[in-house]
Structures are given as C-alpha cells and as structure tokens.
C-alpha cells in the first residue's frame, strides 16, 4: 500500500546531473540521487502514475457531472 499524504505537492522537482548521477531536488529540501538507469525507470513510473491520476480525476469529474452536482 501507499502511505497517506497530507497533501500532494503542486510544484515539480528540480532535476539535474552531476558526476554521472541524476539529482532530484524535491519539495521540503529532499534530494535524491539516481543512477541514469534508475532515473529513467523512475521517470517512466512517474509518467504512468500521472496518467493514472489524471484518469481518476477525469472519471470523478464525469461522475459528478452525471449526478448533476457540477463539482
């Protein structure tokens, strides 16, 4: 399972490369370094997760629209 989050961050991470590693500087001062292969796989997983989340948002909006709430 996934741990519950207080809120989703709405600012993207800063990403760079140093000495053959990919550095991801996320929110709240969190920094993580990845090998290039791990960074590429993480990128794929993030993109897949983003598509899933967008689909969930669209489905919820459609459900509300059909129910007539508009919210």
Helix-strand layout with pairing:
Elements: E1 14-18, E2 21-25, E3 31-34, H1 36-67
Antiparallel strand pairs: 1-2, 2-3
Précis, in short:
This protein is of the alpha+beta class and 71 residues long.
Question: What are the main properties of this structure?
Answer:
single chain; 71 residues; alpha+beta; 1 helix; 3 strands; elongated
Structural class: alpha+beta
Strand/helix succession: EEEH
Helix share, percent: 40-55%
Q: What is the rounded Rg?
A: 17 Å
Major sheet: 3 strands, antiparallel
Topology, number of strands:
3
State the end-to-end CA separation. 28 Å
Oligomer type: single chain
* Proportion of strand residues: 15-25%
Low-confidence stretches are none
- Mean pLDDT, to the nearest integer, reads 91
Large-scale geometry: elongated
The spatial strand order of the largest sheet comes to 1-2-3
With helices defined by DSSP (H or I, 4 residues minimum), what is the helix count?
1
Description of the structure:
The protein is an alpha+beta fold. It has 1 helix and 3 strands. It has a 3-stranded antiparallel β-sheet with strand order 1-2-3. The relative contact order is 0.09. The model has no long low-confidence stretch (mean pLDDT 91).
């Amino acid at each position: 399972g996934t741990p519950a989050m207080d809120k989703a961050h709405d600012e993207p991470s800063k990403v760079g490369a140093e000495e053959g590693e990919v550095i991801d500087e996320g929110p709240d001062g969190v920094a993580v370094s990845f090998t290039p292969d791990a960074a590429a796989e993480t990128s794929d997983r993030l993109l897949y997760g983003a598509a899933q989340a967008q689909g969930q948002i669209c489905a919820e909006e459609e459900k509300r629209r059909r129910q007539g709430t508009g919210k």
